[in-house]
Fold:
Amino acid sequence: MGQITSAIQLIPIEHYMILCLTLFSIGVMGVLFRRNAIVILMCIELMLNSVNLLLAAFSAYHADAGGQIFVFFIMVVAAAEVAVGLSILVMMKRNNNSVDINLLSRLKG
Structure:
């Protein structure tokens, strides 16, 4: 276990933080500026995965498995989110013949 901890700590935690901040920022920009529902869902997943990566890096850096277990539960919730999101996309495609997010208000009736 000592070799794994020392190998992970070779990369400073700041590098993990910069990488995760970059990935999260790309995800936020995709959610804010894109109109395609599939791309928006992918950007939300990118944001979730960047947080998971940072949580796993902190957990490994401090040699505590609690963060990695928490990442597992977050991934389970993300899988459920994908299932719900894809079902909404199928309904949008079926009713509007498009996955444009601006047409989502037509699903009300």
